[in-house]
Structures are given as C-alpha cells and as structure tokens.
Design a protein that fits this description.
It is an enzyme of class 1 (oxidoreductase). Its cofactor is Mg(2+). Pfam families: RmlD_sub_bind. This protein is an alpha/beta fold. It has a single domain, classed as NAD(P)-binding Rossmann-like Domain (Rossmann fold, 3-Layer(aba) Sandwich). Helices cover 39% and strands 17% of the residues. The chain is built from nine helices and twelve strands. α5 crosses α7. It binds NADPH dihydro-nicotinamide-adenine-dinucleotide phosphate, dtdp-4-keto-L-rhamnose and magnesium ion.
C-alpha cells in the first residue's frame, strides 16, 4: 500500500516514516518545501496527481499560544488545507486519515470525552483544528479523524523534552496539577494511523471520528514527576493551579479521551505511556 503523508519533520510524521516499511507500507512524506499547507489548493493538486492508496495528514500549526495572535495562518493550515486534502481524496476514492486534538473540547466534563461529545474549543488552535475536522467530515469521502493528546517523542518539541531541558538549569519546577490527559507516544499514533488507513481502504463504513491517547490519564505535574523519576533526575515538582501559570491560550482541564470505539472498530488499544517513556529515555 502506498501512503502519502503530509508532514516530514514533525513528531508523528517522523514516526510514520519509520513505521511504514515495518508494516509493508510505502511512505512518501512531504515536507513544507514540497507541500506548504498555507496553499491548500496545491496540497489538493498533489493528491490528485499522486498514485497513492491513502493519505495521512500529520502536519499542523501546533504552537498553541502563538495561534492566539496568528489565527488566520493557523486556520489555513489546520482547517482549509485538511478540508482541501479530504476533498481531493474523496474525488479519488481513497481514504484520508487526519490527526486532531483533545483541545477541541472545553474540558469541563467530569469524565473522559466521547468522540460525539459536543466540542467547545477554548482557544484559536482548538478552534482551527475543529474547523478542520468539520471540513474533513463534510468532504464526503472515506475518512478518519483521530483525536490524540499530549504527544511526545525523543526529539520533538514536547512536554518531555521541555522538562528535560529545564532540568539542566533548575532543581525545582512548578507544574499545573489540575489539567488531566493521556500522554501519547508519537510512535503509537503512527502505528494507529497506518492500521486505520489499511482498514478504511477495505471498509469505508468505518469512517468517522475516533479517540486515541496513552494510558493512564495523569496531570501534567504527575507526568513531570514520572519523567524525572525515569530519567533519574532530582527535580522537585510543586503542583500549582492553572491560574498560577498564565498562558495566552487557555487549556482544557479535562483532556481525557474515551478511546473505546477505536478499540472496538480497529482493535487498537491504548499504549501505556510509562513503558514508552522508559524505553525512550533509556535509548536516548
Ligand atoms: N503535539 C501535540 O501534543 C499534539 C498534536 N496533535 C496533532 O497531531 C498532529 C501531529 O502533531 P505533531 O507531530 O506533534 O506536530 P509537530 O509540532 O511535531 O510538527 C508539526 C508539523 O507540521 C508541519 N507544518 C507546520 N506548518 C506547515 C505548513 N505551512 N506547511 C507544511 N507543513 C507544516 C511542520 O513542518 P516544519 O518543520 O516545516 O515547521 C511539522 O512537520 C497534528 O495534527 C496536531 O494537531 C494532537 C494532540 C497533541
Ligand atoms: C513548561 C511548563 C509548562 N507547564 C504547563 C503549561 C501547560 O498547561 C502544560 C503543558 O505545556 P505544553 O506547552 O507542553 O502544552 P501544550 O503546548 O498546550 O500541549 C498541547 O499541544 C497541542 C499541540 C495539543 O494538541 C495538546 O494535546 C497538548 O499536547 O504544562 C507548567 O505548569 N510548568 C512548566 O514549567
Ligand atoms: Mg506546545
């Protein structure tokens, strides 16, 4: 199976490039130089001209705070481009797998979010990602929107690498203890996207919106403790409320995703983030 991937340098894109060959899938990954998402029509044209069997979009405007003052660019990349990609896939009759986020939710529910729960993004990043989901679903083709959360890998810009960097100069950190979610290894997202693409190619009726995050759910503060525990670094973490860590964009307090339909439809189980983190930090 030939899979066209938008994104080349990002956490999930790099994991897709690595995972594809291991499951007999041929990956062509397009970086910004080959496919700039600020030009949605060009992205659609690339799909139209390709001989791929499926498309995965792993590129996005992911700078949550910067999006607050740059929403037009974020919208082009997170909403207009994926919609154009989905339309191009629909016209070709091939599946489109699109990665989305927990930040489409407002975080106020006291239980894990179901895929069909009402969205209510708190910031520009979540708003533009939600608009992207709507455009993908409206394209009328075979598609999966895979919402994930708190993505980490060994090299990307993520909470794990931020904590490790801060620990070079600090022996105590204040981290929010009232936001909860499931940290998700980028490698597991890549594996899930590939399996979903393969399944959709055979069974378009599986199209829809799905959730996928690591388990168990945790607060950022407890995630930080686990990172330093595994890395063997003595950094004191103090839990603080979100109000004491002001940021331009508001984050949801409850980012927990109910991933049961991803398991029942595709047989994909939630990865244990602790195991993945331990493997990642000992290999680094
Ligand atoms: N990171 C996270 O914690 C989470 C991410 N997600 C979603 O997962 C998906 C993958 O995220 P992740 O791997 O973490 O992303 P990264 O932040 O690691 O990378 C983003 C990727 O998008 C590319 N990109 C950004 N703007 C453009 C553009 N104009 N044209 C072409 N490419 C562009 C970047 O390329 P370049 O290097 O050239 O800038 C980079 O490859 C995204 O859809 C994201 O919304 C969901 C939940 C959590
Ligand atoms: C660095 C730092 C962060 N924090 C807080 C801020 C924030 O609430 C939380 C996580 O910080 P980050 O900057 O990693 O979070 P953020 O960039 O918002 O991460 C999000 O990225 C987007 C792309 C997503 O889709 C989400 O799922 C989520 O992973 O930790 C502290 O409390 N103390 C600190 O020292
Ligand atoms: Mg960030």
């Amino acid at each position: 199976m030939k899979v066209l991937v938008f994104g080349k340098t990002g956490q999930v894109a790099r994991a897709l490039i690595e995972a594809g060959p291991t499951v007999g899938m041929q990956i062509t990954a397009l970086g910004r130089d080959a496919a700039d998402l600020t030009n949605p029509a060009a992205c659609a044209a690339i799909i139209a001209a390709s001989d791929c069997d499926a498309v995965i979009n792993a590129a996005a405007y992911t700078a949550v705070d910067a999006a607050e003052t740059d929403e037009a660019t974020a919208r082009m990349i997170n909403a207009d481009a994926p919609a154009a990609m989905a339309q191009a896939c629909a016209a070709k009759g091939i599946p489109f797998v699109h990665v989305s986020t927990d930040y489409v939710f407002d975080g106020t529910e006291g239980k894990p979010w179901q895929p069909d729960d009402p969205a209510g993004p708190l910031g520009a990043y979540g708003r533009t990602k939600l608009a992207g989901e709507e455009g993908v679903a409206a394209a009328g083709g075979t598609f999966a929107i895979l919402r994930t959360a708190w993505v980490f890998d060994a090299a990307g810009k993520n909470f794990v690498t931020t904590m490790l960097r801060l620990s070079e100069t600090r022996d105590a950190l204040c981290v929010v203890g009232d936001q909860f979610g499931g940290p998700t290894p980028a490698t597991a997202i890549a594996d899930a996207c590939l399996l979903i693409a393969k399944t959709l190619a055979k069974d378009p009726s599986a199209s829809g919106t799905y959730h996928f995050s690591g388990a168990p759910d945790v607060s950022w503060a407890d995630f930080a403790r686990a990172i330093f525990n595994i890395a063997g670094r003595d950094v004191k973490i103090t839990d603080i409320p979100t109000a004491d860590y002001p940021t331009p964009a508001k984050r949801p307090s409850n980012s927990r995703l109910d991933c049961s339909s991803t398991k029942s439809t595709f047989g994909i189980t939630q990865p244990d983030w602790h195991t993945a983190l331990a493997k990642m930090l000992t290999q680094a």
